[in-house]
């Protein structure tokens, strides 16, 4: 590799399959990265800001107990034609042994605005920024869920852990979907589902009713996609709460950030907590009254509720959400493109 090469250049001229850099280049990059400081921790490990030849990258370091998640994420990110502007850009993966310790690294683009969860707590949205965030997630999810046919085709992929903490906000006001440790691949040609070797399940707070009551058909890919759409509905609700709308006077109204079901379950809800609220009581997060007084928020409300419908077959697809949001005109006359 010549020293004049930058990451965008390398990614542009890599295999051409949209599945990342050659393995040798990945390992070389991984060895040359300097870790700057930690930017977050999760159940899988820790994320660091790193530098490679002056460029910022995100370095996800997995706990040794979570090798299956590292392996699965790496495998999914290397899927042919996965690359998309609303899916986190994968750069490299490597395993580093330091004698007494093994580090499993996943290197991706760095997004300084952080996760959607963090972002929504600090920012008040207008109609345009709300729809832009929401539409970009729908675009990323639609690309994931869609099988692309051909010699260099792409399998359909279900994420299985959609939540605001697994979505990153880009500087341009769009989002990209991250964290593919639980993802499932499906190729219609041989009707095979590939779950990988990771036995873990998703985040309880965002689990669809059919997951909580154990009626999800794990051998049907359509069912897995619809479980993603339920979780996406909850994320749309999180976003829309933070959008300011006009009251009868000059004042703007906005709701405080809240996690879905934040007023109904404990901060770290158990499986039983969620089952009681979502399945037995058939409750969903409250739709604020102010959403009904504005066409944009009214549309968001309708889309949200159709995504989290108790019946998976009645939920919207990612493509349908994408088309609906794409047609929306925000009050200042700007069309979301």
TrEMBL record:
Cite a single GO MF annotation. Answer: ATP binding
Q: Which cofactor does it need?
A: Mn(2+); Mg(2+)
Domain named Protein kinase: residues: 33-329
Source organism per entry reads Portunus trituberculatus (Swimming crab)
Q: What is this protein called?
A: receptor protein serine/threonine kinase
Q: Which GO terms describe its biological process?
A: cellular response to growth factor stimulus; response to stress
Q: Where is the signal peptide?
A: none
What Pfam families does the database record attribute to this sequence? PK_Tyr_Ser-Thr (PF07714), TGF_beta_GS (PF08515)
Task: Write the record's keywords in alphabetical order, separated by commas.
Answer: ATP-binding, Kinase, Magnesium, Membrane, Metal-binding, Nucleotide-binding, Receptor, Serine/threonine-protein kinase, Signal, Transferase, Transmembrane, Transmembrane helix
Q: Name the residues that bind ATP.
A: 60
Q: Which superkingdom? A: Eukaryota
| Domain named GS: residues | 2-32
Q: Where in the cell is it found?
A: Membrane
Family annotation (PANTHER family): RECEPTOR PROTEIN SERINE_THREONINE KINASE, TRANSFORMING GROWTH FACTOR-BETA RECEPTOR TYPE I AND II
**Family statement drawn from the similarity comment of this UniProt entry:** Belongs to the protein kinase superfamily. TKL Ser/Thr protein kinase family. TGFB receptor subfamily.
Enzyme kind, highest EC tier:
transferase
Quote the cellular component terms of the Gene Ontology held in the record. plasma membrane; receptor complex
Stored Gene3D superfamilies? Phosphorylase Kinase, domain 1, Transferase(Phosphotransferase) domain 1
SMART domains noted in UniProt: GS, S_TKc
Membrane topology qualifier? Single-pass type I membrane protein
Give the Enzyme Commission number: 2.7.11.30
